[in-house]
Design goal:
Elements (H helix, E strand, L loop, with lengths): L1 E6 L11 H8 L4 E6 L12 E2 L9 E2 L1 H13 L8 E11 L2 H8 L3 E5 L8 H10 L1 E6 L9 H12 L9 H5 L18 E4 L2 E4 L9 H19 L6 H4 L7 E4 L5 H19 L5 H4 L2 H10 L1 E7 L2 E11 L2 E12 L8 H11 L7 E7 L3 H9 L3 E2 L10 E6 L9
Parallel strand pairs: 1-2, 1-6, 5-6, 5-7, 13-14
Antiparallel strand pairs: 3-4, 8-9, 10-11, 11-12, 12-13, 14-16, 15-16
Helix pairs in contact: 2-4, 3-5
Bound molecules: 6-chloroguanine (6GU).
6-chloroguanine binds next to β5.
């Protein structure tokens, strides 16, 4: 595999000469070339940056040196071949073991290390005219430039190249290769004392029973993953409460998913009432789009998936009434208390001058009525104006005297 790195700090990449990657280079498995971006500048000061149009902090990397440097890198390769260009940055797609495996298949990668506030956006468009371009981030934090990210990415990919890591098994057994964290490891002595405390190696590891050791190690991996990285297990298992979800005001981009979730959540109502002819089933994206200006709609996501929603507004006919509507939690996440938290949240949005909180549900929707009763609602002593097959439930706003 060939790797080109363009940077204004070539010295930053020196560690690539060390250890396994250094050996891989000497063995001819990996060819890494590091280029100084300033070499392609033509002015006396070797300028690579300038102030941002539109104002703002810091400096932006100029387009021309980048275009020249990338052209030079490409011209220096086998005829007809082009590298995949990777631009590291906190705004990119997430670098994962899966992406490392994918990129390790490429014969040629080029990295463009940005510094300062970033690279002129036109460089991305220009590069995409000639190359496959990926913008890749290590995670949700900010580094000063792409160099450290290149070290991390090249190491993660380089060790996947055949012949770089001696023992092929040690690749397979690794954390993240199969989606679980690694089991704990121990070496001699079996009994170790320090600061007056003696710590033993788990006896199963000394038992010589390979089946028992494999089972213990697998159980340790599951336990660790659940404790430290529950997001790696089934996403639904990671959702315990509303605090695990990301709340947001609904936007038009949410509406196709909201249509799907609404249908799924209203199936029990349809089954109980014997009809699909009511708005949660008949509303499509156009109706929900219109509703965005009549209601304030919230959505909650877990691992990117839209899993809950509610909408709220003042009753247009009676502004002392706070209406809650289209209250839903994805069927597989019901029964975890998420709904009660959403109701509390929606009530807390009621303006101070509101005298009644109102919600409506199917007359035969026993589960919903039970949930609303638990949240302090009672059946209203009137026939619902929404539809004869529905009931209104009401409650007084929570006392705010104690809310400071
Ligand atoms: Cl790839 N670059 C920079 N500058 N900051 C980062 C990053 C990359 N990944 C996380 N933070």
């Amino acid at each position: 595999m060939r790797i080109d790195v363009v940077t204004i700090f070539p010295e930053y990449l020196a560690p690539l000469e060390l250890s396994l990657l250094g050996k891989a280079q000497r063995d001819g498995i990996l060819q890494i070339r590091v280029h100084d971006l300033r070499e392609v500048t033509t002015d006396r000061h070797r300028t690579v940056d300038d102030t941002p149009y539109g104002g703002g902090a810091g400096m932006v990397m100029k387009p021309e040196p980048w275009a020249a440097a990338l052209a030079r890198v490409c011209a220096d390769g086998p005829t007809g071949q082009r590298p995949v260009l990777i631009i590291p940055g906190p705004g990119g797609e997430r670098f994962t073991q899966q992406l490392a495996r994918e990129l390790a298949q490429e014969p040629w990668l080029a990295f463009a290390c940005g510094r300062y506030e970033g690279i002129d956006e036109r460089v991305y468009a220009h590069a995409a005219d000639h190359l496959r371009v990926r913008t890749i981030s290590l995670g949700d934090y900010v580094l000063n430039g792409g160099e450290v990210a290149v070290l991390a990415m090249v190491e993660a990919m380089g060790r996947l190249l055949p012949g770089v890591v001696g023992n092929a098994e040690s690749l397979v057994e690794e954390s993240h290769e199969d989606g679980l964290l690694e089991y704990p490891v121990y070496t001699k002595p079996a009994s170790w004392t320090r600061d007056g405390v003696t710590r033993e190696v788990p006896p199963v590891l000394l038992s010589g029973d390979h089946g028992a050791i494999a089972r213990w190690r697998h159980a340790q991996r599951l336990e660790r993953t659940a404790a430290r990285r529950p997001d790696l297990l089934a996403p639904a298992a990671a959702v315990g409460a509303l605090a695990d979800l990301d709340a947001a005001l609904a936007t038009p981009a949410d509406l196709p998913e909201l249509v799907v979730l609404t249908r799924a959540c209203w199936v029990p109502e349809a089954a109980a009432s014997g009809t699909f002819d009511f708005p949660p089933f008949t509303d499509g994206v156009p109706e929900l789009t219109a509703s965005l200006s009549e209601w304030t709609t919230y959505v909650w996501r877990a691992a990117g998936r839209l899993v809950a929603s509610i909408r709220v507004r003042r009753d247009p006919e009676d502004d002392r009434v706070w209406q809650l509507g289209r209250f839903m939690v994805a069927p597989d996440l019901q029964g975890r208390g998420i709904g009660q938290e959403i109701l509390t949240f929606a009530e807390s949005l009621a303006p101070r001058d509101v005298s009644t909180i109102w919600i409506n549900t199917g007359r035969v929707s026993e589960r919903n009525i039970r949930i609303y009763r638990k949240a302090g609602f009672r059946l209203a002593p009137w026939d619902s104006q929404v539809h004869p097959a529905t009931v209104d439930l009401i409650k007084s706003p929570r006392s705010r005297a104690d809310k400071g």
